Automatic annotation (TrEMBL), chain A:
Segments forming domain ABC transporter: 6-240
PANTHER family for the chain: AMINO ACID ABC TRANSPORTER ATP-BINDING PROTEIN (PTHR45772:SF7), CONSERVED COMPONENT OF ABC TRANSPORTER FOR NATURAL AMINO ACIDS-RELATED (PTHR45772)
GO MF assignments: ATP binding
Organism whose genome encodes this protein: Ancylobacter radicis
Keywords, alphabetical: ATP-binding, Nucleotide-binding, Transport
InterPro entries with a match to the protein in the record: AAA+_ATPase, ABC_AA/LPS_Transport, ABC_transporter-like_ATP-bd, BCA_ABC_TP_C, P-loop_NTPase
Record's protein name: ABC transporter ATP-binding protein
Automatic annotation (TrEMBL), chain B:
InterPro entries: ABC_transp_permease (IPR001851), LivM-like (IPR043428)
Subcellular location field: Cell membrane
Predominant location: membrane
Protein name: Branched-chain amino acid ABC transporter permease
TM ranges: 6-24, 54-73, 80-103, 109-129, 150-172, 203-223, 235-265, 277-300
Membrane topology: Multi-pass membrane protein
Keyword field: Cell membrane, Membrane, Transmembrane, Transmembrane helix
Length: 252, 310
């Protein structure tokens, strides 16, 4: 197999005495769809922040396409093709939907001019199904549409790796199904996708491989089916007591 | 605004100011020159305060430093116009360096920091007597000519500075830079995430906000022939310029210049008619305008003509 497109080697992040990430190592292969799960506070968002330069890693190496990008700033990550969405959506509220996506194409996607960026933005909006709302102010969109806007903005940046931080949080189940189809479509276009979720259902339906983060440590990395029956993972999610009870039920 | 009406109003506005000597006496010409000067200052502020949304109060620092650099150059024998150019470039460089530090602050903290720059510049200039003459101020070589000729000349210079600042505003508004600055205004973190080099863009906006202020300051020094620290680094000037830009419409192309014209004219009217109460009346007018016209005078156009949205 060729080298992973994104590789973390012993990455740690501390905030004063608090260890948010401890010695995390894994690689994402080109075109792969990987799920990153873990209970609240496990360090999932911190991990994304460290990769995109929103936070500086305390130690370890972050390799993107064979280059150490541990010291990059967020705008450099965006230009390199490391795109992300935020758990709490971050639109430019007074701009129209089209202008929002144009910003992604112009700065992150390296479009030659504002006009080119606008064309590219229309394609992205078409792709995510927001084209009819192109001229609406971003602030007027409902949550599901705002999440799609985030996706369109990221796609306009021509990402190589796309990290989706809880894109499904707050959506109802039919909206989630729509979002899943969209993520599948994005993955099919060849983009490497890291899905950060705590909804198991979502992750399992998309990714064959799972990473599990618990108390800032990567406690499992492997095929989804094996991971979900891994004792440590169940413990992390349910606590020791319930994990033990679950085990009894299986054996009993 | 669509390009055509924009250019038309721009040309008409500049022409009305430029024609002042044809229809008015020396007082009118002087007022036109003051309008042009404040128009340039408010248009400059618009780069950082309007487009980028960083409430800068550094205008007086750039104006005063421009005045001093220009004055010192002229006193050491540099021709006047060259002195103005040197002042503009030097202050732009100063703003770029300062911006790299100051623009790490956001919101109120940036506002306070930018005010401190004005006070610091004033203190340094008044203490550095060997170079700046301290509190005694500096005399500049007198420009030869009749008072009428001089007034006309300085009106034209101020108009050139105003026109240049407006031209750069139009260029920035259409470019990648302008787009990026508006993104920063709306949501700076999101701007960085889509790939805007926010630090570089903010420094560029701050530098642009300095260069025309410095040119105006240097010109003003040559015009009055004498400068001192208190007059050159006035907090009142800094605040006035911000009010002008807000009055006309911050973040628009022509708004700040229109606001400057409205403000200067109001000020003149109240000075002339209500010598005791002029400040109070002006203050009231400002409060009323900002309460009822938060988008500035330019937003009237949108309200009055539903089809004429920008």
């Amino acid at each position: 197999m060729s080298d992973p497109i994104l590789r973390l080697e012993g990455v740690s992040k501390t905030f004063g005495g608090l260890k948010a990430l401890t010695d995390v190592s894994f690689g994402l292969n080109e075109g792969e769809v990987v799920g990153l799960i873990g209970p609240n506070g496990a360090g999932k968002t911190t991990l994304v922040n460290v990769v995109t330069g929103n936070l500086r890693r305390s130690s370890g190496r972050i390799m993107f396409e064979g280059e150490d990008v541990g010291l990059q700033k967020p705008y450099q990550a965006a230009r390199r093709g490391l795109a992300r969405t935020f758990q709490i959506v971050q639109p430019f509220p007074a701009m129209t939907v089209l202008e929002n996506v144009t910003a992604g194409a112009l700065f992150g996607g390296g479009a030659a001019s504002v006009g080119d960026a606008r064309d590219k933005a229309r394609q992205s909006l078409e792709f995510v199904g927001l084209a009819p709302l192109a001229d609406r102010p971003a602030a007027n969109l409902a949550l599901a549409a705002r999440k799609r806007l985030e996706l369109a903005k990221s796609l306009a940046m021509n990402p190589k790796v796309l990290m989706l931080d809880e894109v499904n949080a707050g959506l109802n189940s039919s909206e989630i199904d729509g979002a899943l189809d969209l993520i599948r479509k994005i993955a099919d276009s060849g983009v490497t996708v890291l899905i950060i979720e705590h909804l198991m259902k979502v992750v399992l339906s998309l990714s064959k491989r799972l990473l599990v983060l618990h108390h800032g440590q990567l406690i499992a990395d492997g095929p989804s089916r094996e991971i979900v029956s891994d004792e440590r993972v169940i413990e992390a999610y349910l606590g020791q007591k319930f994990a033990a009870r679950l085990k009894e039920m299986h054996h009993g | 605004m669509k390009p055509l009406p924009l250019y038309a109003s721009l040309v008409v506005g500049l022409a009305i100011l430029a024609a002042a000597p044809l229809y008015g006496d020396n007082y009118v010409v002087r007022t036109a020159a003051i309008v042009a000067m404040y128009g340039a200052l408010a248009t400059s502020w618009n780069f950082i305060g309007g487009f980028t949304g960083y409430p800068s109060f550094s205008t007086a620092a750039f104006f005063g430093l421009g005045a001093y650099v220009g004055a010192l150059c002229q006193r050491s024998g540099v021709p006047m116009v060259v002195a103005w150019a040197i002042a503009s470039v030097a202050v732009a460089a100063f703003a770029a360096l300062l911006g790299g530090i100051l623009l790490r602050l956001r919101g109120h903290y940036f506002a306070i920091g930018s005010i401190a720059v004005v006070e610091l510049c004033r203190l340094i200039v008044s203490s550095w007597s060997s170079l700046t003459g301290g509190g005694d101020g500096l005399n500049l070589p007198l420009v030869q000519g009749t008072p009428e000729d001089l007034m006309r000349f300085f009106l034209m210079v101020m108009l050139v500075i105003l026109a240049a600042s407006l031209l750069v505003t139009i260029l920035v508004d259409r470019s990648r830079l302008g787009f990026g600055l508006r993104c920063i205004h709306q949501n700076e973190d999101a701007a960085a995430m889509v790939g805007v080099n926010t630090t570089a863009y903010k420094v560029a906006a701050y530098t642009l906000s300095a260069v025309f202020c410095a040119a105006a300051g240097a010109t003003y020094a040559s015009w009055t022939g004498y400068i001192d620290p208190t007059d050159s680094f006035q907090i009142v000037l800094t605040v006035k310029v911000v009010v002008m830009a807000l009055l006309g419409g911050a973040g628009t192309i022509l708004g700040p210049a229109i606001g400057a014209a409205a403000f200067v004219l109001l000020e003149e009217v109240f000075w002339a008619n209500f010598i005791d109460w002029n400040r109070a009346i002006l203050g009231l007018v400002i409060v009323v305008l900002i309460f009822f016209l938060p988008g500035g005078l330019l937003s009237l156009r949108r309200r009055l003509m539903p089809g004429g949205a920008a």
